[in-house]
């Protein structure tokens, strides 16, 4: 038995979610986004469960090297691309695909041509996100320059990123798409726009390649829905146990700063789970926690290693009883809402102390 915080991963759920991606985008290839340690789920384990994906995408060169050296033979795209000649050399050496989004990168490609080396490049166009990408007015220059690079395979892929696709009432996505289509019209090249929200809410953004991230992990990209209502299955569940149960009298306070005061005599449970494990410190009083499968409210402040729950509704609860912090019966999206954040940050924030089983 594991004592302390642990996370359980459901490989079958990953496969189910990938199949759901394919059902939404039956004509597209799937570039599974597994950056940031597969959104906190564990890079290599996720990759082996997602063996049916057509390609993978990570943010940084280091992540791609880790994947390649672990034996992944599929295409791996580096979404942030490279910033130095050394990183470019690594991209060539490890046969990685790269996004190109600046003139400096094109310069590096020209100045560091490796004889015989050919790399697959995605040209990123900034259609309104104002993060990475060439402005639309610079697209044609960048496209021609890239096509003139000896090291770049043809055709160059064309990519943009959607800034607000999780808001289905905002037509910004349609405007981004229209701009992308206008700028790239007539170019014979693979295209890629859709993230999870695009895939689920904006079918017009489907193109040759889709780039789902969060939905692969069973989590909704929308703030007003949980993944299970979209047909997704949660991949991660987070668990621990009660390590103490005690009685509290009226007027006593619980935890740092005494921020929770007992108004009715009760029993509280101490759970071995805190922000040192990645549970959000800012989760508010009342955030649900499952003890023996039943919902009880968080009370007091979350501390580094522990948190406290009110066991008034669970008189049988005792030391050693199982606790679930999120999972199938307690959506991580709901916990994110109680912590005034998004579920992406919760799963990405699980710390190395947490055992994965
Ligand atoms: C360029 C790019 N494409 C796709 C994704 C996947 O997005 P999501 O996790 O919302 O599906 C991301 C993630 O932020 C990204 O940066």
UniProtKB/TrEMBL annotation:
Keyword Isomerase: yes
Keywords: Isomerase, Pyridoxal phosphate
Pathways involved: Amino-acid biosynthesis; D-alanine biosynthesis; D-alanine from L-alanine: step 1/1; Cell wall biogenesis; peptidoglycan biosynthesis
InterPro entries given in the database record: Ala_racemase, Ala_racemase/Decarboxylase_C, Ala_racemase_C, Ala_racemase_N, Ala_racemase_pyridoxalP-BS, PLP-binding_barrel
Residue(s) carrying N6-(pyridoxal phosphate)lysine: 35
Cofactor(s) recorded in Swiss-Prot or TrEMBL: pyridoxal 5'-phosphate
Residues at which substrate binds: 131, 304
GO molecular function: alanine racemase activity; pyridoxal phosphate binding
SUPFAM superfamilies: Alanine racemase C-terminal domain-like, PLP-binding barrel
GO biological process: D-alanine biosynthetic process
Residue ranges occupied by any Alanine racemase C-terminal domain in the UniProt entry: 235-357
UniProt EC number: 5.1.1.1
Active-site residues, Swiss-Prot/TrEMBL: 35 (proton acceptor), 256 (proton acceptor)
Catalysis: reaction(s): L-alanine = D-alanine
GO-annotated cellular components: cytosol
Family that this chain belongs to: Belongs to the alanine racemase family.
Function statement: Catalyzes the interconversion of L-alanine and D-alanine. May also act on other amino acids.
Name of the protein in its database record: Alanine racemase
The species this protein was found in: Crenothrix polyspora
Organism taxonomic ancestry: Bacteria, Pseudomonadati, Pseudomonadota, Gammaproteobacteria, Methylococcales
Gene coding for it: alr
